[in-house]
């Protein structure tokens, strides 16, 4: 499927270990109900994107120790972190309502944050003509930010759906403001499909043309 208007919805790591069950709740510093709302809102966005024929891309994380590099293993040992989203486990499965639909591309990150490090991710986006990436998923300050940063550097325009993500280590507004300032990311809400489904700038109304044969009055001119 080609990306209408060059837009693709990228759903990042909406997996059970991150947004459902006791492990997700124990790691998230805020109200776990926020994770449930993110998953529910993303499911709604998926339905809207599919109905509009927008390209949908799913990214998943696998944290098995065999995929981890030395620095990752050292960090986990130092901080006492346990691997998450183990291949074949319930925790690695997509959250209910956010499962990939027929024909939708799925890319796997093996113990890394950035979706551009997964095989074929960028090639797929270029192949379908996507120039504008709309991000939903987890977490805003980890994998969403890592992928959005690379997307910007590779020339993609970035939109982040504020109610379809949340941060793990930073206040939500802080990381969203950071992405807006550093990457020029447009931050909007899921219910504004007329905005996020278009490339930044395309939703701006065209200026009303001047009437022919009549000059516009200058500021301060008397009539």
Question: What does the model show?
Answer:
The chain is of the alpha/beta class and 223 residues long. It has a single domain (4-196), classed as Isochorismatase-like (Rossmann fold, 3-Layer(aba) Sandwich), CATH 3.40.50.850. It has 8 helices and 6 strands, in the order E-H-H-H-E-H-E-H-E-H-E-H-E-H. The protein has helices at 16-19, 21-27, 33-52, 70-79, 121-127, 140-153, 172-183, 193-196, and strands spanning 7-12, 55-62, 105-110, 132-138, 157-166, 186-188. The protein has a 6-stranded parallel sheet. Helix 7 (172-183) links the parallel strand 5 (157-166) and strand 6. The chain is globular. The model is unreliable at 205-223 (pLDDT under 50).
CATH superfamily: Isochorismatase-like
What structural class do the secondary elements suggest?
alpha/beta
Query: If you average the pLDDT, what whole number results?
Result: 91
Strand order of the largest sheet: 3-2-1-4-5-6
Secondary structure tally: strands: 6
Looking at the chains present, what oligomeric state does this protein adopt? single chain
> How much helix, percentage-wise, in residues?
25-40%
Strand content: 15-25%
Please give the largest β-sheet. 6 strands, parallel
- For the record, what CATH class applies? Alpha Beta
Task: Describe the secondary-structure layout.
Blueprint: E1 7-12, H1 16-19, H2 21-27, H3 33-52, E2 55-62, H4 70-79, E3 105-110, H5 121-127, E4 132-138, H6 140-153, E5 157-166, H7 172-183, E6 186-188, H8 193-196
Parallel strand pairs: 1-2, 1-4, 2-3, 4-5, 5-6
Helix pairs in contact: 6-7
């Amino acid at each position: 499927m080609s990306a209408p208007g060059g837009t693709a919805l990228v759903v990042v790591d909406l997996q059970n270990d991150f947004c459902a069950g006791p492990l997700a709740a124990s790691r998230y510093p805020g109200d776990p109900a926020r994770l449930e709302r993110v998953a529910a809102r993303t499911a709604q966005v998926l339905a809207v994107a599919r109905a509009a024929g927008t390209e949908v891309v799913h990214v998943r994380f696998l944290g098995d120790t065999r995929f981890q590099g030395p620095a990752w293993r050292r960090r986990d040992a130092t901080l006492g972190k346990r691997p998450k989203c183990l291949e074949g486990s319930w925790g690695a499965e997509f959250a209910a309502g956010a499962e990939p639909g027929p024909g939708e591309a799925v890319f796997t990150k093996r113990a890394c944050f950035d979706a551009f490090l997964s095989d074929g991710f960028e090639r797929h986006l270029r192949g379908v003509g996507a120039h504008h990436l709309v991000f939903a998923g987890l977490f805003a300050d980890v994998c969403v930010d890592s992928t959005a940063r690379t997307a910007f550097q590779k020339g993609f325009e970035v939109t982040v759906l504020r109610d379809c993500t949340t941060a793990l280590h930073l206040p939500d507004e802080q990381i969203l403001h950071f992405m807006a300032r550093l990457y020029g990311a447009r931050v909007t809400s899921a219910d504004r499909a007329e905005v996020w489904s278009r490339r930044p700038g395309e939703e701006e109304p065209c200026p009303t043309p001047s009437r022919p044969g009549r000059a516009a009055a200058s500021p301060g001119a008397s009539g």
